[in-house]
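Practice problem: predict the structure.
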Amino acid sequence: MNIKALLPLCLLLVTACDDAATNDRPSDTELAKLRATCSFAAGDPATVTTGYEIPVGPDIRIDHFVLIMQENRSFDHYFARLPEAGVTDVAVAPLTASNPDTDGTLRYAYHETMHCIEDVAHSWNASHLQYNDGRNDGFVTTNNPDGVRALGYYDESDLPFYYGIVKTFASADRFFCSMLGPTWPNRMFFFAGTSYGRTNNQFVPDGVTVTSIFDLLDERDISWTIYSQDLPGAAMFPHLLGKGGEHLKGYDEFFEDAAAGRLPAVALVDPEFNAGVDRTDEHPPGSHQAGQAFVASVVNAVRDSPLWPSSAVIVTYDEHGGYYDHVPPPPACPPDEHAPILDGDDVQAAFDRFGFRVPLLVVSPWARPGYIEHRTLDHTSVIRMIEARYDLPALTARDANALPLTVLFDFSGEPPLLDAAPLPEATVDEAALQLCRQMFPGDGGGIF
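Answer:
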């Protein structure tokens, strides 16, 4: 027998055994089926719910997560014109997108030229009527009525910085907010994987114990800070505001910490919520360009920081704000035993469906260059990535069964975008902003 001839086979078998020992988790193809059937529960770590193709622990080479949650814009409202900007591998509304008005007349999507727009309906009831069993045809009739402004969209000329992120770094075209409803419950999902039954902008009922991603970080002595300009975005969980100290800082301190290389493991950087049309959270009638400039300031500060090689800025929106999107929200895993708290005239539904698509932007040297993820993600995919990085248990069944945001990153070698070119300038049309101030002089802001 020619022993030398068998050596390559022996080496192959040894390598296969070594790989099996290293990758002792199942494949993600297997586990994706289990996640799709809501097979996992609160307390399950990511090592149980994801396959070996999805990194966990220190294999996620991010030490500083910088989170930004803006307000009230849908994916099609901002990015329906991505193909015209050269991004073709993306699901966007057709040029002929339309919704009927109350008379049945079709009203068509159009390029919005106004920088400040009257708010559009996005309550629990309005969102479910807009969804309309998957038809996505109630956006005009739920607004005042016949609010055709819900069909307006922006393009690259309006949002050059955001389009630059999509073309350079990573994003997703099936990133959904967590439930069909308004700001507070969606932000609760972002922080805690559930809204504890809330369907509107109200606090969690008395007697209900709240556990957020920040509480999990505290239990493991992992640093976190909320940097806010006025009201912190996590204010719907008052116990977080009581933590004080290094956990709550001002907006200016973010830039100091970034420049000094002392950002925490998880940072939430909040926009202005209470500055009238000058607010930077992008909530109508606030200017989309003012919000874009705020995001750019945070992104550029991280890119200029000594911590850039181990950082990721994750930008998303709490909900669609009532703006049209053409993709029907798919089913979702109910998070826990809390059923929706509904009034008699509320649409009867459960927490078993995502809300509409919202923008997701990932800026990191480890982001997949120019990549758009097509698998279903939601707000809890963000906290699932943080849980996976620090070996934290799932907060609820929703984040336990979420695909971690890790899939937008490439940790296989050197960071592919460490030296990426500067992004386009986040321009603000000052004349348009002044017109906004005249049009909406009494807008007081707030997180809604």
